Amino acid sequence: MFRPRGVPMFTALVLLPLLAGCPADPECTEDRDCATRGPDIVCVDELCVQAPAQDAGLTDAGQADAGEGDAGVDAGQSDAGHADAGTDAGQADAGADGGTTVPEASLRITEINPDLSQDLIELVAVTGGTLGGISLLELTNADFSFTFPQGYTVEAGAVLVLHLGGDCTDAPGAPASCGQTAPFTAKAWDFSLPGSLSYSGKVFELLAADGSPVDGVPFVRASGAMPNETVTAVQRLQADRVWDATPCIHNLDTGLAKDRYCRNIAVNWSELNTDSSVMRIVGTTPLATPGVATQWSTPLPSRWGTY
């Protein structure tokens, strides 16, 4: 029977180091091969090993924190620059919190008498706010205009009285500073200015501080000649959308007073005396704009400073 012969000892000793140098199968070729070993095990040189702790060099103290990340974005544009110092300390704090802009008041012409030694015009604030820059113009022949000075703020419902030829103006914040001797009143804001109004026809327009039209009203007497500028002035109010858009009638051919000077749409302020005035108090919405003649009363006992 054949019996294989054993490997000689010398040959075994020679082959042993060669067998030991043969590479074994790798544990891994990528990190997911080590997933079963734990969450922080990664593949390095085909072996699964513990992942090293995150280096505090480049990421923390280097480019990200002290460099472009913190000092650049945080202390620069985001924190101290545009975002924080700009929006927070600037617009948000000083604007909305500490310096809120007060809106402009919206006024309406509400009472008038041009037949007094001191002609009076009353206005009412339908919304509160500042008065500075708001102006009242007479558009025919009175050569009258008035612009409210800066520094005055009124609440909704406040009454303001213009005294043409008056000698006292209330101080800002003190509507009673001109006293209570008629025609001044402790309840209303009193403003005195030079000038006077003739008792014929007059057309007034109220402008906001930026010049935009707010209100207007034309006044005429029932007969007689009115200023030559009356028709043009009324048409201006209509173009500015502060007065009745019904076409103005000015027809000299009929020979009738009612067909002249826009009497068909203007307020008739005939029959005034020193104790009366015409007032914008008629109807459910007397202060609505565009204004119309039917919002105005016939002459009634004056009530200056009260609306």
Structure overview:
Keywords: Signal. It comes from Corallococcus terminator. This is TP-1001-like C-terminal domain-containing protein. With 307 residues, the chain is of the alpha+beta class. The protein is built from 3 helices and 15 strands. It has 2 domains: 44 residues; 196 residues, Immunoglobulin-like (Sandwich), CATH 2.60.40. Strands 10-9-4-3-14-15 form a 6-stranded mixed sheet, with no helix packed on it. Strands 7-6-11-12-13 form a 5-stranded mixed sheet, with helices on one face. It has a two-stranded antiparallel ribbon with strand order 1-2. Helix 3 links the parallel strand 12 and strand 13. The protein is elongated, with a radius of gyration of 45 Å. The termini are far apart. The N terminus is likely disordered.
Distance between the termini: 140 Å
Biggest beta sheet attributes? 6 strands, mixed
Order of helices and strands: HEEHEEEEEEEEEEHEEE
Task: Describe the strand arrangement of the main beta sheet, using strand numbers.
Answer: 10-9-4-3-14-15
CATH architecture of the largest domain: Sandwich
> Taking Cα atoms only, what radius of gyration do you get, to the nearest Å?
45 Å
CATH superfamily of the largest domain: Lamin Tail domain
DSSP summary, beta strand count: 15
Indicate the low-confidence ranges by residue numbers. Answer: 1-7, 10-22, 55-97
Q: Roughly what fraction of the amino acids lie in strands? A: 15-25%
- The residue-averaged pLDDT reads 81
SS field, number of helical segments: 3
Within the CATH hierarchy, at the fold level, what is the topology of the largest domain? Immunoglobulin-like
Structure classification? alpha+beta
Quickly name the level 1 CATH class of the largest domain: Mainly Beta
- Overall helicity: 10-25%
User: How many structural domains can be distinguished in the coordinates?
Assistant: 2
Outline, from the CA principal axes?
Answer: elongated
InterPro entries: TP_1001-like_C
Pfam family, one: TP_1001_2nd
Protein name: TP-1001-like C-terminal domain-containing protein
Organism: Corallococcus terminator
